[in-house]
Amino acid sequence: MNTMNIQQEIQNLFKDRDDHPLFYIESGSRLWGMASPDSDYDVRGFHLPSKAQHYDYRQHRDLIEIMDGDFDFVSFDLNKMFGLLAKSNPTVLEWVRAHIVYSNQFPEWEKFRDGLLERIDYKALYYHYLSLAKGGMNVMQTADNFTYKKVFYSIRGLMSAELATQRIMPELLITELFEQADANDPLRRWAEDYLEIKRKQKEKAQLPAAEQTQILKLLNDKIEALNLKAIEPTNDLEKLQQYLTEYSFNLKKHFYG
């Protein structure tokens, strides 16, 4: 697939719907610069429900999901998306910061994004990325799961968590994330050496046993170092919620009249 095909897929999805598509990006390994030759296209974003749904008293499904071959599409409705942003949810914050954008009909997008990123809580980023890394490590140590993909997801998680303790926004592209890390960090050196190998491997390619032992030690050493750091909430939750409420009101007024 290519950008034009994906844009057409998105248009086709909403052709017979009354929902308003707002913003769609590429997420996952392609966004992070870690894609394998057989990686899927993970299209993510959000939409505004139809006017009829907006005024209906009944509860409607708050997401659209499509899986068609290597095209994996998920769209949250505006309320669900903004609810997650109010919690500084790191996954949807990555969508907001994505550089691979397929469609954007969100009014005053850059103003909204920049104001949002000034108000987020780095503590939420820290725990998300740390949990992501630990989860990947647990999976990779089960039968036939010690893949390059799982390893790099864990590396990315730990590097991002470490930056969150410094109130630094982790870069999305893995090579730019490496540059944010200490040049003498052993985990960074290992990752830089193995990234090209990872990119040439299929999704389920396994690390050789010798490398498994080495990288597990580096990952556990990083977790031990992070455990020594304390992080407190870094934002004013009420101000973030008010910011999102105002944008939600203006956006709905713009589309619903």
Overview of the structural elements:
The structure is a single chain. By secondary structure, the protein is of the alpha+beta class. The chain is 57% helix and 13% strand. The protein is built from twelve helices and five strands. A five-stranded mixed β-sheet has the order 3-4-2-1-5, sandwiched between helices. α4 runs antiparallel to α12 (237-256), α8 (148-165) packs across α9 and α8 (148-165) packs antiparallel against α10. The mean pLDDT is 92.
Sum this structure up briefly.
With 257 residues, the protein is an alpha+beta fold. It has 12 helices and 5 strands.
Mean pLDDT: 92
- Tally of alpha and pi helices: 12
Backbone shape: globular
- Taking pLDDT < 50 over at least 5 consecutive residues as the criterion, the unreliable ranges are none
Number of distinct beta strands: 5
Salient structural properties:
globular; five-stranded mixed β-sheet; 257 residues; 12 helices; alpha+beta; 57% helix; 13% strand
Itemize the secondary structure elements and their pairings.
Layout: H1 3-15, E1 20-27, H2 28-32, E2 41-48, H3 51-55, E3 63-68, E4 71-77, H4 78-86, H5 90-97, E5 101-104, H6 109-117, H7 122-140, H8 148-165, H9 174-180, H10 186-200, H11 209-227, H12 237-256
Parallel strand pairs: 2-4
Antiparallel strand pairs: 1-2, 1-5, 3-4
Helix pairs in contact: 4-12, 7-8, 8-9, 8-10, 8-11
